[in-house]
Amino acid sequence: MAKSEIYVSTDIEADGPIPGPHSMLSFASAAYTADKKLIKTFSANLETLPEAAAHPDTKAWWEKNSEAWAACRENCQPPDVAMKNYVEWLKALPGKPVFVGYPATYDFMFIYWYLIRFAGESPFSHSGLDIKTYAMAVLKTNYRESTKRNMPKRWFDKLPHTHVALDDAIEQGALFCNIMREADKMN
């Protein structure tokens, strides 16, 4: 019998636009079943890469968001420790992990790069779901019209978006499950 899919809503916080020259500062995942049951979470704050530096634009953004900055700088772990623990966590989920992000292209880029560099593998393989793209398909709109402000209010639970990775992963996972539920009703 095939394992069911587990939707792993993931959010990252970084100090620049790409991994390597810039560091992933924090990441978190919220694992959901298709029926919107939150089964497990994982979060870690990371030490910065010794060879990396903050991008000036991102650094300026962080200076305006001091609470989120403080949250992602507490109890930082070496990336190799955090990513190996994350792989173990993903493998222990009761189904096949499917990466879910908003935007998936940004978050997945960092997660995949860090997984390969520090853990040597990615339980996600090369697969990821983008919430905005999924909303585009369900709403039958253009991609650029599929922003959160254009999505139906009923898709949003009353959850905070704080730029603290775990808060945002939970919020985005609930949004994804709500869109999935509506898509199922349409079929």
Automatic annotation (TrEMBL):
Tell me one GO molecular function of this protein. nucleic acid binding
- What are the UniProt keywords, alphabetically? Exonuclease, Hydrolase, Nuclease
- Top-rank taxon: Bacteria
Q: Which Gene3D superfamilies match?
A: Ribonuclease H-like superfamily/Ribonuclease H
Query: Which protein are we looking at?
Result: Exonuclease
Biological source species: Spartinivicinus marinus
